[in-house]
Amino acid sequence: MELLWEGIREGFRLLFTGNREVIEITIRSLLISGSAILIALVIGSLAGYFLAMQRFWGRNFVLSLVNTGMGLPPVVVGLFVAIMLWRSGPLGLLGLMYTPGAMVVAQAALATPIVTGFTVASIQSLHPKLRLQIMALGASRWQTIWLLLREARLPLLAGVMAGFGAAISEVGASLMVGGNLTDTRVLTTATVLEVQKGNFELAIALSLVLLILIYAVNLVLTFVQQRQRPA
User: Fold this and answer.
1) With bands split at pLDDT 50, 70 and 90, how would you rate the model's confidence at 35?
2) What CATH number matches the domain at 2-227, 3.40.50.300, 1.10.3720.10, 3.30.565.10, 1.20.1250.20?
3) pLDDT, tens only, 10-24
4) Residue 140 carries which DSSP code?
């Protein structure tokens, strides 16, 4: 128990004293996961809209894949991305392996099914005649997509929060494609490294910083979500 309190005190000390290494790792974590969730939002919202509005053979099979993808093990995603980005892999020429870019790809792969699943559910919850009404007013296809997504923005924000949480808190994929090097170390992988070194106080402190970061981001998104909630 004493170790836990020491870690908590160390965490707040690192936060308020402005430890350079912790700040760099925190900013890197936020940039990588933020970039990943932006990619996931663009791909996932468009894919989710298509799956919600279109009827085609095999649609239920695709939806089941999306639902399965919402719980993909990070190590499986990391393995697949590593194979794709390896020197002898299909995308090896990009030279992304063991870079922050590879971590963005891995985290985006984890978050995209989550955003897609939330988008499908949110679009299907809208009134079925809303799309026809929008198109009857002369809206183009892209305007229709934008208006329907805007109408479903509240559950979509929940999808963004869930996707961001999954991205920033995963460890396996980041270790596989990032290597936990100085330039690719994020809060989760740094915590693993400190545990392996036996620095449990610093590991607890980094975990505390991660929890505070996740809460702060979700707090902002929750305020945005609730402010836009219809009366």
Assistant:
1) very high
2) 1.10.3720.10
3) 667 766 676 777 888
4) -
